[in-house]
Amino acid sequence: MKAVQIAAFGGAEALGLSDADMPSPGPGEVLVRLACAGVNFIDVYMRSGVYARSDTYKTPLPMTIGMEGAGIVEAVGEGVHDWTPGARVAYCLSRGSYAEYAVVPAWRLVPVPDAVSFEQAAALMLQGSTAHYLSHSAYPLQPGDACLIHAGAGGVGQILIQLAKLRGATVIATVGSAEKAAIAKARGADHTILYREEDFAARVREVTDGAGVHVAYDSVGKDTIHKSIRSVRRRGLCILFGASSGVVPSIEPIELAEAGSVFFTRPHLADYMADAGEIRGRASDLFAAVEAGRLDPVIQQALPLKDAAEAHRMLEGRQTRGKLVLAVA
Ligand code: NDP
């Protein structure tokens, strides 16, 4: 089969199609014939070695890239009784989706309703589940809450804005350009801030009458985290969940005290997708919202699998305006 593999950590140029051995499902596993793979920032971290020492996301070399996919069950391994060949499925957090076939632990799969396309399913499993756990679990937004969402025109950002609005929150979104501000607004953001030009912490105080937000969702990391902490109201929560601008090396505890006894967390999606029930619960909420017309997964572009390197360049080069997927079949 064809797959996008790397032999060493490095830049996007290493991503090319190669021949790989067809995987076969072991006990508790399912072989999925992929229709499309989702492209995510975690793929960039895995390709470049950011997670080389992570216990949660292991990155053994050589490695097939891709942590999200949708397609058809081709075969099941020993002991798998809840899936049969031909079922429409999607998943995330299992390696190797930039390929024609992938072996996935059965408990990670969710059924995809007929009304949801494979592209939409692949767009929602990782970024959608992330937006879902951030807005429903890590900080369950309530009507009247104010939240700050960085990179509001990005993949996670656009879904998070929509879910936050469905929960009745006021959304302040930061974005890198005026064009992206229009996108965040179209998704429902109440306020947008051009954070490369303006002091976003000052603007957040201004639009919240000096109080700050109940929760800051920070995926940008190094460039924004200190101001994100200072944008949160007394005893509010700052959630650092990404490193698009670089990894945050450390936070001084006193910084949290001085910002108003702010709480701080740095979650992994895997800890909020801990078992089959949690994974299926989030996916069925997201798919139902799509079917009801309340959530738009915003597919920016479907590129052929052979163009994986181009997809990574777009993601790293701040060119995404929604979800990139790789069409496999
Ligand atoms: P995005 O589509 O959001 O792309 C990243 C965006 O970050 C860019 O478009 C850009 O938006 C902004 N950005 C700011 N500074 C930089 C920089 N120096 N280089 C590149 N981009 C920058 O990506 P995803 O939706 O795929 O992922 C968003 C984040 O969420 C990632 O950091 C990812 O790691 C994280 N994540 C975390 C998870 C978790 O559970 N912890 C799970 C899933 C994703 P702009 O131009 O508007 O500034």
Automatic annotation (TrEMBL):
GO cellular component: cytosol
Primary enzyme class: oxidoreductase
EC number: 1.6.5.5
Superkingdom, natural source: Bacteria
CDD domains, sorted: QOR2
GO function term, MF aspect, one: quinone reductase (NADPH) activity
Keywords, ordered alphabetically: NADP, Oxidoreductase
Pfam families referenced in this protein's UniProt entry, alphabetically: ADH_N (PF08240), ADH_zinc_N (PF00107)
InterPro entries: ADH-like_C, ADH-like_N, ER, GroES-like_sf, NAD(P)-bd_dom_sf, QOR-like, Quin_OxRdtase/zeta-crystal_CS
Protein name: NADPH2:quinone reductase
Organism field: Hansschlegelia beijingensis
